[in-house]
Amino acid sequence: MEPDLTAIMRLVERNAERLLEEAVAIATIPAPSFNEAKRGAHIARRFSEVGLTDVASDEIGNVTGRRAGNGPRVMVVSHMDTVFPLEPPCNRVSRAIASIVPVFGITPPRWRI
């Protein structure tokens, strides 16, 4: 594994519980296609809370934020919509399921099946 990737994996592993809680919190906000505003508002609020600057939403609901640094530029991208209706049959995300589904581009080894 590349040295930089190893450091990232250690960071993800150290923060695994918090990252899982954040993913579950986001996933429980209904966000069917073209109705992602509530989820986008939550994400924008969290961006500000964790120190991102220039947090903004555009006319179609994309949320952006910036974190200053001196290293190479990195972009993290994800979609916000889901396949579920606005009133899903179940609005709870199982921690058991969420803990094994690779919800991040980089997942700690203990999250892998």
Give the number of domains: 1
Overall average residue pLDDT? 78
Count every beta strand, where a strand is a DSSP E run of 2 or more residues: 2
Elements, N to C (H/E)? HHHEEH
Any key phrases for this structure?
113 residues; mainly alpha; 2 strands; globular
Strand and helix layout:
Blueprint lengths: L2 H12 L1 H12 L9 H13 L3 E5 L5 E4 L28 H4 L15
Antiparallel strand pairs: 1-2
Please explain how this structure is put together.
The chain is mainly α. It has one domain (3-111). The protein has 4 helices and 2 strands, in the order αααββα. The protein has helices spanning 3-14, 16-27, 37-49, 95-98; strands at 53-57, 63-66. The chain has a two-stranded antiparallel sheet with strand order 1-2. Strand 1 (53-57) and strand 2 form a beta hairpin. The longest helix is centred in the middle third of the chain and has 13 residues, at 37-49. Mean pLDDT is 78; it is low at 102-107.
